[in-house]
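Quick question, first post here. What does this chain look like in 3D?
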Amino acid sequence: MNSFLSRGKIKLLIKYTVHRLSRWIRGDGIRSPFVFDIKYPVYKLNRKRFIGEGIHSPFVFDINRNVIKSRISYKEYRDIKKYRRSLAKKRGRIKTEDYGAGSRVFSSDTRRIKDIARFTASSFNTGKLLFRLARYFKPQIIIELGTSLGSGTFCLAKGSEEGRVYSIEACPRQTRIAGTELKKTGIMNFELIEGVFQEKLPELLRRFEKVDLVYFDGDHRKESLLWQFRQCLPKAVPGTVFVVGDIHWSNGMNEAWKIICSDSAISLYFDLFYCGLIFFREGMAEQKYLHGYSD
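> Answer (accepted):
Ran it through. C-alpha cells below.
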C-alpha cells in the first residue's frame, strides 16, 4: 500500500468523515458533511503538532494555551449554546439576499430560518474561539463582516462586554431577525448595520482611528475578501487581530488567504483550517503555524 493510502491515513479519513456527518446531523453549523473530506486530513497530516511545547515566543505560547487550545469551560458557553438552539427552533421562511459566493447547501433564495442557523452560522467551536479571542484581547472596537443571524455577533459581544461589535449584513431580513434575537439575550454592546460591504465598510471605518478585532465572514470570493482586508489594514495597529473565516472554502479563498498572509504588515498568523488568525505585533519576525485546531 503506497504512502498516500497508508492505514493511518485511511483511518483518519474515516474518523473525520464520521465526525463531520454526526455534526451535520446535529445541525452544528456544518455546511456539508463532505466538503473538506480530502483537504482536512491532508492538512492534519502536514501541520505542526503542538499544544505549546517547543514554542519560543511567549506570546505565541500564551495564545496557543489560553485561546486556541484553552481547556477552560467558560460559563458563557452555555449562553452561546442557548442562543444557537433558539435560532434552530425558529419557524418560518425568509427570502434571503446573497451578495457573496452563494451557497453550497441551498438551491433557493427562500430558506427556513432554522436551516440558515444550521448551515450558515458559525459553528459552536468557532463561536467559542471568537468568545475566547474577545475575552483574552478585550477589544474595544470589533467589526464583523457578515452578521447572518447573529451567532458570531453574540459570541464577540459576550467575550468583550466593555467593547462594541459593529456588524454589517446585506440581507435586511436576516438583520432584523438577528437584532430581535440579540436583544432578547440582554446584550446591548452591538450595532447592526444593514447594507453591502462596499458601501457600509468604508463608512464604518471612517468613524474610527483604529480597529481592535475584525471578523471576515461574509463574502467568500477572492477579490471581495482581499478588498475587505485592504480596507481594514490601514486601521490595524499593534495588538489588532483579524479573524478570517472559511479560508479553505474554495480555491479562491485559499488563494486570498495566501496573499493576505504574505503582507509585510503581518507579524504572525495561524492556519486553523476552518479559519485563520492574523496578529499585528511590534518587534516580532513573521511566524506561521499550521495548527491542529478542530472545528
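Residues 7-26 form the longest helix (20 residues).
Residues 27-37, 49-54, 101-107 have pLDDT under 50 and may be disordered.
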